[in-house]
């Protein structure tokens, strides 16, 4: 027995520990839709009081009807009964009107709350460190916040509403019952205690189950994505992977489904037991009241009033409890959102930042930089030093995984190094405001984004702040060699790209790359970084583009990462990277004369060409 009590107490403690999220959740709703929430609260109070008016009208109505019948239909007895009937009809009509108005107000409120929450999640995701996207834990948080929070917040509003409304009605009903004996309201409340326990403990169990299974649920979403998305469609067909991924999806879903159904089953059984206790009590109370009326200690009107009040009270307690349970569950799940929002970025502005230079005068210097990706034992860069002098073109070559792209990520402060310094004109990057630093850099990423927007917009996204005009967009497209593929589109620069929306045109990988290059060129930043700019170009296009590149990068500091030696050879300095270290540096001729890795890889590549 004491053991059981201890379990109940610990469950209650755990349940209460989650409640601090309630005020936060309410504040979120209030912040999102003040006006609608006020209107909705007023309506709920009105709707809460109307059933009490019905109950109060019942006694005089029944008694006046009995009197009218006894008087044989005398007008002075019938008239008060008719007035009461009219009043009762008025209350019922008003209840109906309010119900419909509530649907409208609640829809507006719910839409606003959903959009507000999505906005908060988007803001947080965009501001999160890139490192967060390397962590499965972050995805779990994001998944729970995204999948639960919007609909849970709407459900929270609904349950808060029914809680308020039913609470008002119940309080009034309990007041109605007090004249029949103080024990009546106490019995009514007591009868729901077992159900109360069931509701809370199951909300908690379901919440913990959901937390435990988030990663598995995300995996089912992943399988679903593989089976339904365009990116995978060709491979799934060629390698006949459909059945494989379907069976992975189904077997995982089966397990999750079985666990979920088992939870629901045990909740139903517990609720049936709790409901039986409440029913027994209701029967006893009604029996007592009938006995009282039969013995002439109450009128028929009293019996009708009591029956309505007690019966409605029981129903209200049940739905109140349900609301409390749902409210609790919703608050628990909204806790996921608040946990997600509480994640703090590690790469932040220094408390006393130094103003970033408007142009690069000396250059970029990496000194003794060591960096491991979060959760990785192996350093991607180790004791790494490199100088990129201002105004020069520097190329980085090296095998896959040598650490070339990592360098760029550190330079943009997507991550901070574990040790060592990265300086721009002698200023440690950590001392510069992050936004200012990033404004100094423009990049062609190795896997650029294919925005489903027009060709012109795809380029303009490189510098929205400068509101580029058509002439600048077209100049950037020409510099990148993107003007030709754009000219072939039926609507040229105004043609929608990508296949997600109707009338969108699809480009080849190389054409997308040129568009991304144009995006990078559009931004007149002093530091130009190109990660594999020619990887998808054919040799003719490459030769043509390289001939123009020096002019395009004039006055800028350029860093080119490439596997193509024909591209690297145009740089002022070439650094050869291997396993996070520079093993050779110099101009093309110097490196060839050295006869080391570069010369060896060059001749291998030339033989292949
Ligand atoms: P490639 O020529 O293939 O593009 P790279 O030289 O650009 O290669 P990086 O992308 O810098 O190589 O990767 C360097 C090392 O860091 C690799 O061993 C890779 O496995 C590891 N790495 C890269 N990104 C991550 C990440 N997000 N989390 C953990 N390790 C990573």
Query: Which ranges are low-confidence, i.e. pLDDT below 50, for 5 or more consecutive residues?
Result: none
Main structural class: alpha/beta
Q: What is the mean predicted local confidence, pLDDT?
A: 85
Gap between N and C termini: 83 Å
The major pleated sheet works out as: 6 strands, mixed
Query: Are any ligands bound, and if so which?
Result: adenosine-5'-triphosphate
Helix content: 55-70%
Shape, please?
A: elongated
Share of residues in strands = 5-15%
Number of helices: 21
Instruction: Give me the Rg, rounded.
Output: 36 Å
**What oligomeric state best describes the polypeptide chains here?**
single chain
Widest sheet, order of strands:
6-7-8-3-9-10
The count of strands amounts to 10
Features:
10 strands, 6-stranded mixed sheet, alpha/beta, 65% helix, 4-stranded antiparallel sheet
Chain-wise SSE layout:
Layout: H1 2-17, H2 21-32, H3 34-70, H4 75-127, H5 136-177, H6 183-190, H7 193-212, H8 214-228, H9 230-238, H10 242-294, H11 300-342, E1 363-371, E2 381-389, E3 393-397, H12 404-411, E4 419-424, E5 427-428, H13 434-439, E6 441-444, H14 455-460, H15 470-480, H16 483-487, H17 509-522, E7 527-531, H18 539-552, E8 557-561, H19 565-568, E9 573-578, E10 581-586, H20 588-594, H21 597-608
Parallel strand pairs: 3-8, 3-9, 6-7, 7-8
Antiparallel strand pairs: 1-2, 1-4, 4-5, 9-10
Bound molecules: adenosine-5'-triphosphate (ATP).
Residues 134, 373, 376, 380, 398, 400-406, 446 line the site of adenosine-5'-triphosphate.
């Amino acid at each position: 027995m004491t053991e059981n009590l201890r379990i109940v107490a610990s469950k209650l403690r755990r349940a209460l520990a989650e409640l601090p999220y309630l005020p936060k959740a309410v504040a979120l709703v209030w912040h999102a839709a003040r006006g609608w929430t006020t209107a909705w609260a007023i309506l709920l109070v009105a709707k809460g009081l109307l059933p009490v008016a019905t109950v109060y009208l019942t006694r005089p109505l029944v008694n006046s009807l009995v009197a009218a019948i006894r008087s044989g239909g005398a007008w002075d007895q019938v008239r008060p009964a008719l007035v009461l009937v009219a009043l009762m009809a008025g209350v019922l009509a008003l209840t109906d009107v309010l119900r419909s108005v509530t649907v409208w107000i609640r829809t507006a409120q719910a839409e606003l709350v959903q959009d507000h929450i999505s906005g908060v999640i988007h803001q947080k995701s965009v501001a999160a460190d890139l490192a967060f996207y390397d962590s499965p834990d972050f995805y779990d948080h994001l998944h729970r916040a995204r999948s639960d929070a919007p609909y849970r917040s709407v459900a929270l509003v609904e349950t808060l509403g029914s809680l308020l409304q039913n609470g008002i009605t119940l309080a009034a009903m309990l007041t109605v019952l007090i004249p029949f004996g103080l024990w009546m309201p106490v019995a009514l409340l007591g009868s729901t205690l077992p159900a109360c326990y069931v509701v809370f403990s199951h909300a908690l169990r379901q919440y913990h189950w959901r937390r435990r299974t988030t990663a598995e649920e995300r995996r089912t979403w992943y399988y679903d994505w593989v089976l339904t998305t365009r990116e995978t469609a060709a491979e799934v067909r060629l390698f006949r992977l459909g059945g494989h991924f379907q069976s992975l999806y189904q077997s995982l879903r089966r397990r999750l489904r079985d666990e979920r159904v088992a939870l629901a089953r045990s909740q139903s059984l517990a609720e049936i037991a709790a409901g039986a206790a409440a029913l027994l009590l209701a029967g006893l109370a009604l029996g007592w009241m009938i006995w009282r009326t039969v013995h002439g200690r109450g009128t028929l009107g009293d019996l009708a009033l009591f029956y309505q009040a007690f019966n409605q009270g029981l129903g209200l307690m049940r739905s109140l409890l349900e609301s409390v349970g749902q409210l609790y569950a919703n608050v628990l799940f909204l806790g996921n959102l608040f946990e997600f929002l509480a994640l703090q970025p590690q790469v932040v502005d220094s408390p006393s930042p130094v103003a970033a230079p408007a142009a690069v005068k000396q250059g970029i210097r990496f000194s003794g930089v060591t960096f491991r990706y979060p959760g990785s034992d192996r350093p991607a860069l180790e004791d790494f030093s490199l100088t990129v002098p201002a105004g020069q073109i520097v190329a980085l070559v090296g095998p896959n995984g040598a650490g070339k792209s990592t360098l760029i990520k550190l330079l943009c402060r997507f991550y901070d190094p574990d040790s060592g310094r990265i300086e721009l004109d002698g200023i440690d990057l950590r001392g510069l405001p992050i936004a200012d630093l990033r404004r100094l850099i423009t990049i062609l990423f190795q896997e650029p984004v294919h925005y489903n927007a027009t060709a012109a917009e795809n380029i303009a996204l490189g510098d929205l702040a400068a509101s580029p005009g058509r002439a600048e967009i077209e100049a950037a497209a020409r510099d990148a060699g993107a003007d030709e593929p754009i000219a072939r589109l039926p609507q040229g620069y105004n043609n929608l790209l990508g296949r997600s929306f109707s009338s969108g045109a699809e480009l080849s990988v190389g054409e997308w790359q040129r568009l991304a290059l144009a995006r990078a060129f559009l931004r007149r930043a002093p530091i130009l970084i190109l990660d594999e700019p020619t990887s998808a170009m054919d040799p003719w296009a490459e030769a043509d583009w390289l001939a123009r590149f020096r002019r395009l990068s004039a006055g800028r500091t350029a860093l080119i990462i490439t596997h193509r030696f024909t591209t690297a050879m145009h740089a002022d300095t070439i650094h050869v990277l291997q396993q996070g270290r520079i093993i050779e540096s110099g101009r093309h001729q110097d490196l060839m004369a050295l006869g080391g890795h570069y010369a060896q890889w060059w001749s291998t590549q030339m033989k292949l060409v």
